[in-house]
Amino acid sequence: MIKEAIGVGDTEVLALEDACRQLGVETYEVEFETLQRAEKGFLGLFGKTQAKVRAFIKTSPADTAAQFVKDVLGAMDITSVEVKVTEEDEGAVIELEGEEVGSIIGRRGETLDALQYLTGLVANHVDNSYYKITINTGNYREKREKTLEILGRKLAFKAVKTGMKTSLEPMNPYERRVIHTAVQKVNGATSWSEGENLQRHVVIGPDGNVKPRNDKYRGKGNNRGGRGRYNQKPKFTAEKIERAPINEGEGMGLYGRIDK
């Protein structure tokens, strides 16, 4: 994307400075072309023509995203956080470092998620194409993902053991997919999403394709005096069932083009 501005001044230098002020950059950061040279009028007074200069800078989605994050942090009066950008295929990772990152993360990462969502919208507007933006700080994303994986497996085993389902708190599409993936590794358990928009959440329960069985064993000697065990509680078998991943954000960042 190219940002440009046309500056006007009594000289070409002043016209260039005027264009750069409009762009919010220094003169050494832009490319420019002279549209009209300054000309003195009759007797140096009448018919004077001012110079016109077109200054422009080429901006990438990553640069635009980083600048947006800096502007938001400035508006939040957060000045001690450093913004680092690493470009990747079809996207970029923005790493935030500093003493005030806690206030950027927010409760369960809600503030960080919101900032990432808005930054993604800004970045995608540059070339009108999908550009994945991930904002991280202090490996928070990795730690959060690990916590969700542990939670998903724990509740999956609980569902197999008790036959009861559990509803989790609302999560964004990416986090819901982390839960689904963790549950799918536990045979006898399954998960699905319920609710709409911001209230969409994951429910974990026993897999309906796995039928409970009632094991009946008899002691040594069978019908010849042995003690039978007829009153055991039903158990869920650990049958292996192939299940396709639930599309809750595969290959996407938070809030990225999700239909489920």
- What is the string of helix and strand elements? EHEEHEEHHEHEHEEEE
**Helical residue percent band:** 25-40%
What distance lies between the first and last C-alpha atoms, to the nearest angstrom?
Answer: 32 Å
* Class derived from helix and strand content: alpha+beta
- If you average the pLDDT, what whole number results? 81
Could you say what the CATH architecture of the largest domain is? Answer: 2-Layer Sandwich
Helix run count: 6
Ranges where pLDDT stays below 50 over 5 or more residues in a row are 215-242, 249-260
Main pleated-sheet profile: 3 strands, antiparallel
Task: Based on Cα principal axes, name the global outline.
Answer: elongated
Q: Looking across the biggest beta sheet, what order are the strands in?
A: 1-3-2
Q: What is the name of the CATH superfamily of the largest domain?
A: R3H-like domain
What fold name stands as the CATH topology of the largest domain?
Ribosomal Protein S8, Chain: A, domain 1
Strands, count = 11
Radius of gyration, CA atoms, in whole angstroms: 31 Å
Kindly estimate the percentage of residues that lie in beta strands according to DSSP: 15-25%
CATH class term of the largest domain: Alpha Beta
- Return the domain count: 3
